[in-house]
Amino acid sequence: MLLETVEFSSPLGSLKAAIHADRVHALGFADHWPRLAALLRARFGDVAFKQTPGHAPIISSINDYFAGDLAALDAVPVRLTGTPFQQKVWAALQRIPAGKTLSYGALARKIDAPGAARGVGSACNANVIWLAVPCHRVVGADGGLTGYAGGIERKHWLLAHERAQHERGRVVAPLPADRALRAPGSRRASDQRST
Fold first, then answer.
1. Fewer Cβ within 10 Å of end Cβ, the chain: N or C?
2. In the beta sheet, which residues pair with residue 26?
3. Neighbours of 7 (CB within 10 A)
4. Coil, strand or helix: which one is 178?
5. Strand, helix or coil at 87?
6. Is 36 helix (H, G, I), strand (E, B) or coil?
7. How many CB atoms lie within 10 A of CB 151?
8. Which residues contact 132 (CB under 8 A, 6 or more apart)?
9. Residue 189's CB: how many other CB atoms inside 10 A?
10. What are phi and psi of 84, to 5 degrees?
11. d(CA 147, CA 39)
12. Which has the closest alpha carbon to 14: 137, 174, 124?
């Protein structure tokens, strides 16, 4: 299978997408691309990647999300490939409203698999379409931020961005590169330790 790849910038660093037949097969931060590529190869076997400058509508939808239009991710056409349980989890992730979170256990109950919180966590970890299949909206039982393959700082930023849009209608402008992982309205953990 030949997947076209496109790389573009975001407030959280470069994003990379793998696209075939105008559907996103993978989307993640470029610094985590080797892991996503390995997951794609595990699913599809012989996968080749070809960089392309196209796919403007997909990039535009993702940029609109970062500019404050939280519903823009709904326009990203995705192709989910996994086990039936993974597919169930990923479909449930897409139903978590932007600005809201669910615990792994609550998500397991929503898909009629109570007691499968670890399985939900594993399915989230196997997700290769970040943002559009929003595994960043799943938190620990105590509400703590746990287990985001893109990094906890990015998860914190994404959730703060969505809450700001959802609750206050505030648009979060792209951040300078040296502050890219700072959540809207907060300080980095390293900044907090110095005070």
1. C
2. 18
3. 14
4. helix
5. helix
6. helix
7. 15
8. 24, 27, 62, 73, 76, 78, 94
9. 12
10. -55, -40
11. 17
12. 174
**Would you call 184 helix, strand, or coil by DSSP?**
coil
Burial 79-91 (b: 16+ CB within 10 A, else e): ebbbeeebebbbe
Residue 135 falls in the annotated catalytic set: yes
Give the H/E segment covering residue 103: strand 102-103
Angle CA(28)–CA(103)–CA(27) in degrees, nearest 5? 10
Output the CA torsion sign for 157, 128, 90, 19.
positive
In whole angstroms, what is the distance from residue 126 CA to residue 38 CA? 11
pLDDT higher than 60, residue 65: yes
Tokens of 166: 């959802």
Tell whether the model's pLDDT for residue 174 goes beyond 70: no
Three-state SS for 170?
coil
What tokens appear for 7 in the block?
A: 């790389």
Q: What is the model's pTM? A: 0.82
The amino acid sitting at 114 is P
Task: Determine which one of 135, 139, 159, 164 is catalytic.
Answer: 135
What pLDDT sits at residue 13? 94
Please, which residues bridge with residue 177 across strands? none
How far apart are alpha carbons 159 and 163 in whole angstroms?
6
